[in-house]
Design goal:
mainly alpha; about 85% helix; transmembrane helix; cell membrane; about 425 residues; membrane; 15 helices; about 0% strand; Putative polysaccharide biosynthesis transporter protein; transmembrane; globular
Length: about 425
């Protein structure tokens, strides 16, 4: 875990350095283009999974992942078709002289192509990288995660400083190349895992097992897909609500503090969550009575990582705000502290989310997240109207409390019910 923590910390530092170097060497227009590409990759990673990812990753984490490889191949073809459809859509748009539509959003045709290709490559790398973690290959997964989140940014920083890269297009092309390398290396390792699965004793005993269809994978994963979109909206909702009630300056300061605090959730995800999910699935198959204990341990580990990182940020908050020429008065400190507390809970929620996937509680999670979102929106609006940016931070914290409470209750009840069912079934099996 320490290696993953160091790699993720280095990756975050390199991404932060890249933003500063892009601003100083290419200007703030390039920063805006880079920010657009980052936003597009986040959206692509959430939406282009189409609901297949949670269940496929769960199946790949099982003691016998062999039946899931067929669904994986079919899914790759599906993703390829989706990528071609999106590429064709942009090609038709630009060929028909609709570049003016892109210009309304501040996009040139070249930049639109760069952003689209980077977003598609980021989704492909995200999925392939996740499959490696699910196949219990954390070392390879961690190294490739660093390549696609940090190493390319370090190369881009060096290229900009020595004058080898002269435009934001070149920076995005480097990002695209890194993602392509991650996909290729991931597939090489996945093929090795598939060959090992074919030759395992489990595969021999289960040679007559039917390959799981991709529709079954989608059916089990769709509720988590919907819930994930709702969760993503809860991550950013107060920002959009605040846009109508806060000044541009106040909103910008809130977003800056939010970006700093969000780093601790990213640290917890890459150090604890990426390996916790596959372990949950394996434990449910091999020693289900230890599942609850493992879930508690993983949640505590996530809270420990995020709490230590949050404490370090609070100690260094003056220096961090000074980098952006921001004041570091009591108000900004309270805002940052509230957001850090919220993201400590979000890190714990990520662990509980993977536990819920392992338990296949998709419908319960989806309904609870929808109910939470419906109750959250009026609360967030009221807090922002009456308390400004601090109200937005409190709203974010309130949402985090609700998410952790809902997921924790679902995981606890489902795991307890499963344990009771297995206990009752044991005498009959005997």
């Amino acid at each position: 875990m320490l290696t993953r923590l160091l790699l993720r910390g280095l990756a975050l530092g390199l991404k932060f350095a890249l933003s500063i170097i892009v601003a100083r060497t290419l200007g703030f227009d390039a920063v805006a283009a880079y920010g657009l590409a980052v936003a597009a990759t986040v959206i692509a990673s959430k939406l282009l999974g189409l609901g297949f990812s949670p269940e496929l990753n769960r199946q790949l984490s099982e003691p016998d992942p062999l039946p899931a490889f067929g669904a994986m191949r079919t899914l790759c073809i599906t993703y390829g078709g989706l990528y071609l459809l999106l590429i064709a859509t942009l090609a038709i748009t630009t060929a028909n002289g609709d570049a003016g539509l892109l210009a309304r959003f501040g996009l040139s045709t070249r930049l639109a192509w760069c952003v689209l290709l980077v977003a598609l490559s980021e989704h492909a790398a995200f999925e392939a990288n996740g499959w490696l973690f699910s196949l219990h290959r954390p070392r390879a997964g961690s190294l490739l995660l660093f390549v696609r989140t940090g190493a390319w940014a370090g190369l881009a920083c060096a290229g900009l400083l020595v004058g080898a890269l002269h435009s934001i297009d070149a920076v995005l092309a480097l990002w695209l190349t890194a993602n392509a390398c991650v996909v290729a290396l991931s597939w090489w390792d996945i093929r090795r895992a598939a060959r090992q699965a074919h030759g395992s004793p489990r595969a021999a005993r289960a040679s007559t097992a039917r390959e799981r269809g991709v529709l079954g994978v989608w059916r089990h994963g769709l509720p988590f897909y919907v819930a994930g979109i709702v969760l993503a909206s809860l991550q950013y909702a107060e920002r959009f609500i605040g846009g109508g009630h806060l000044s541009a300056d106040a909103l910008g300061r809130y977003v800056f503090a939010w970006s700093i605090a969000n780093a601790i959730q990213a640290l917890a995800f890459s150090t604890v969550v990426v390996t916790a999910g596959p372990r949950f699935v394996r434990v449910l198959a091999d020693a289900p009575h230890t599942f609850s204990r493992l879930a508690v341990r993983a949640t505590i580990a996530s809270v420990a990582v995020t709490s230590i990182a949050a404490a370090a940020i609070l100690v260094l908050h003056r220096e961090l705000f000074a980098l952006a020429h921001e004041p570091s008065g009591p108000g900004q400190f309270a805002l940052l502290a509230t957001l850090l507390a919220s993201f400590v809970l979000r890190g714990a929620a990520d662990v509980l989310w993977t536990a819920a996937i392992a338990l296949r509680t998709g419908c319960a999670v989806m309904l609870s997240m929808i109910a939470l979102a419906l109750s959250y929106l009026p609360l967030a609006w009221s807090l922002i109207v009456h308390a400004g940016a601090m109200g937005a931070a409190i709203a974010h914290l309130a949402a985090s409390v609700g998410i952790v409470a809902a997921l924790g209750l679902i995981v606890a009840r489902t795991s307890r019910y499963g344990a009771a069912t297995r206990t009752e079934a044991a005498p009959h099996a005997a």
